[in-house]
Design a protein that fits this description.
With 716 residues, the chain is mostly beta strands. The chain is built from 8 helices and 34 strands. The protein has one domain: TonB-dependent receptor, beta-barrel domain (Maltoporin, Chain A, Beta Barrel).
Length: 716
């Protein structure tokens, strides 16, 4: 591991910037203006909603109109419209997103940086970057997706991409809406938003049966945001969120024989319980002492309490005995209530930090531009318990794990943009200095500590060829720290695992002409070291690391016939294509514990869960108050393990084998009359009720069956 003091990063970063005293004027923020308050109070990944073309690298914005008109019920449905992004369903509600970018394994979204208003959205981005919850998509104003060198403004996960969820601007005048929806599989939802005088309160509740037997989900979310212009130079934003989930939902998949004998909705464990209590608060202060100069400081705190009681974690789990497991392998019906055992995987996460960013307009070497430097202090505590109970519905028992894991990080970055005629150049530097600890708090337990420091660089370029055409390119070093449990063993000793490092390259073109928007990008990510948990790549192989390579093409296009013909509405279409030609193990990935190749890993094999082709196409037609569209999502074949096993064993555990490609159709009909506060819709997901496998990580998991939802909304 490379260890460099923070001073090195700052010394390197400062020459990239100009002093705020040399700033050249830009448009000033006018006190009381709503859009100015949003800009002051929100850290943005891409930039403004109207100008993603200026990004020095690939960038996509999903605004509210796309999310609403397609009636995306989950973040999964929305993100599938973005090229380069793959999303896997799990429980049917999108409550535990599995997001991958440019070939990264989507399991638990561990390789993606998730943000909300530019601040960490996950509870442990340094020590355990895994996603076990997601706020309802209905409360977000837009979604920004960034994959280029601009990632270095954030962190620590800067390898594959960032997703930034932007919350709405509170209105000045009283306004709001309420929406009710219901559908098949017991689905019901209420979403309401009301605001005025700079305050916004958003409430969401949804419940229903999941995608499998013995699954029921219920989530309630309350979010509040307050913005106030304190003076001409000062603005304050406060955010608070409380989320609760109480669901009957399992963890394990099913075996190959169970899938054949009982179908896609089979899941035998009826006593599993998943509880979440999540609360978060942040305060952001923006100081604008002069035109073009801004100091934005944000303090944030969150706690995430998760209890997951279950009888099986995978199809190979012997918690209920080997006879029970072998019966599942044979595809025989089992009675989980005859198994007097349950495990409680209980997790408490506490995260807090301060993020400050100074930005200013510059005039350097005769060129105009913008500069930004930032510093972040971040801490997170993980308290992990495992409790073994003696009945199927046990909610207490014997403690077999009591672990405290911490991460403390000090991060700094610097970036500047040089405007050289039609060419923009954006160099960036980022430094992370992280301290990890692990302590076994059971009697006789041991503890350990390890440190990690890393400095990375990036360079982006954007050339405006003409008003409708621009070219962009970027290169940056990617970095992702290992999990605490991977870096420090249970006995307190440091392992041989290193941080993930990559060289990320991309180049592309954007074009906009009379209703047609196009973006095409070629990318290549070379990993000097990629860390892979063996259990998500077939079987129970321990942690492995090695060299890998990803390369491919992304293409996005939007078409609006009405704009071409200079009249409103009629046909429109959107296309997102990802071709991942390369997603290879450049070398055999080697086990961290022994140094031997991981089971099945061979140089040249394709990495698991990296489909070669993924496409989303939507075609719609607008006529008067009616807006109808159909959408098809196509995903190519995938491998579930390092060995690229094509045909699983006859009585296989479901964790190995090829995942066939599939196409899933959806349809939406919206009714939005002019000069009416009322609107309504009906949407059908997986319209043809296609059966397809989406995951074999813990056994076979099928995609969501058909679901039909209808809703009505009232705005004031």
């Amino acid at each position: 591991m490379r260890r460099r003091p923070l001073a090195v990063a700052l010394a390197l970063a400062l020459p990239l910037t100009a002093s705020p005293l040399l700033a050249t004027p830009t448009a000033s923020a006018e006190a009381g203006d709503r859009e100015s308050r949003r800009t002051l109070a929100t850290i943005e990944v891409v930039g403004t909603l109207d100008a993603p073309d200026s990004a020095a690298g690939s960038a996509t914005i999903l605004d509210q109109s796309v999310i609403v008109s397609s009636r995306a019920l989950t973040v999964n449905e929305a993100l599938r419209k973005v090229p380069g992004v793959t999303v896997r369903d799990e429980e049917g509600f999108g409550l535990r997103p599995n997001i991958g970018i440019r070939g990264s394994n989507p399991t638990r979204s561990t390789k993606v940086l998730l943000l909300e208003d530019g601040l960490p959205a996950m509870y442990a981005p340094y020590g355990d970057n895994a996603s076990y919850y997601h706020a309802p998509i209905q409360r977000y104003d837009r979604i920004e997706v960034l994959k280029g060198a601009g990632l270095l403004r954030f962190g620590p996960q800067t390898i594959h991409g960032a997703i930034n969820y932007i919350t709405p601007t509170p209105p000045i005048d009283a306004a709001g809406h309420v929406e009710l929806s219901a559908g098949t599989r017991g689905y019901g939802a209420l979403h309401a938003s009301v605001g005025g005088s700079g305050l916004l309160v958003d409430f969401g509740h949804k419940q229903g049966d999941g995608a499998r037997d013995n699954t029921a989900l219920e989530q309630t979310d309350l979010f509040a945001k307050y913005e106030r212009q304190l003076a001409d130079q000062h603005a304050l934003t406060l955010r608070a969120n409380v989320l609760r989930e109480e669901s009957q939902v399992g963890y394990s998949g099913v075996t190959d024989a169970e899938a054949r004998n009982f179908g896609r909705e089979y899941y035998p464990f009826q006593d599993d319980l998943f509880d979440i209590e999540h609360s978060a608060f942040s305060a952001s202060h923006a100081w604008t002492p002069d035109e073009g100069v801004q100091l934005l400081t944000s303090a944030y705190y969150s706690q995430f309490l998760r209890d997951w009681w279950r009888q099986s974690s995978t199809t190979t789990d012997t918690q209920c005995g080997t006879a029970f497991r072998d019966a599942r392998f044979r595809g025989e019906g089992v009675d989980p209530r005859a198994c007097n055992s349950a495990q409680g995987r209980l997790r408490n996460y506490y995260t807090w930090g301060v993020d400050t960013r100074l930005s200013w307009a510059t005039s350097l070497f005769g060129t105009a531009g913008n500069s930004e430097v930032g510093l972040r202090w971040h801490e997170e505590d993980q308290i992990r318990f495992q409790v073994n109970g003696t009945s199927p519905a046990a909610r207490s028992g014997t403690f077999v794990e009591n672990n405290l894991r911490t991460a403390e990080a000090l991060a700094a970055f610097a970036t500047t943009t040089f405007d050289i005629g039609r060419l923009q150049l954006t160099p960036s530097l980022r430094h992370e200095d992280i301290a990890f600890t692990r302590l076994n708090r059971l009697p006789g337990g041991l503890g350990g500590r390890d440190d990690l420091a890393e400095t990375t660089w990036g360079l982006g370029a954007n050339w405006t060829v003409g008003g409708a055409l621009s070219l962009f390119a970027s290169a940056h070093e990617g970095f992702a720290p290992p999990r605490v449990e991977d870096l420090i063993a249970g006995n307190g000793t440091s392992t041989t695992v290193d941080a993930e490092q990559s060289l990320n390259l991309e180049a592309g073109v954007r074009a906009r002409w009379r209703g047609i928007d196009i973006e095409a990008t070629a990318f290549r990510n070379d990993f000097d070291n990629q860390v892979v948990v063996g259990s998500i790549a077939g079987g129970s192989t321990p942690l492995a690391q090695g060299e890998t390579e990803y390369a491919g093409l992304e293409f996005a296009a939007g078409f609006n016939r009405g704009a071409l013909q200079r009249r409103a509405g009629e046909f429109y279409a959107n296309l997102a294509v990802t071709w991942l030609g390369t997603a290879d193990q450049s070398t055999a990935l080697r086990r961290v514990d022994t140094g031997q190749p991981a089971n099945g890993s061979v140089a040249g094999n394709r990495l698991p869960y990296a489909p070669e082709l993924a496409t989303t196409f939507r075609l719609g037609y607008v006529r008067g108050a009616w807006d109808g569209s159909v959408e098809v999502q196509q995903v190519g074949r995938q491998w579930a393990d390092f060995a690229n096993t094509r045909h699983p064993a006859a009585n296989g555990d479901g964790q190995f084998g090829e995942l066939d490609g599939y196409a899933a159709w959806s349809a939406t009909l919206n009714w939005t009359p002019e000069n009416s506060a009322w609107s309504a819709y009906v949407a059908a997901k997986n319209l043809t009720d296609r059966t397809y496998i989406v995951d074999r990580t813990r056994g076979i998991l099928f995609g969501n069956p058909r679901q039909v939802v209808a809703g009505v909304r009232y705005d004031w």
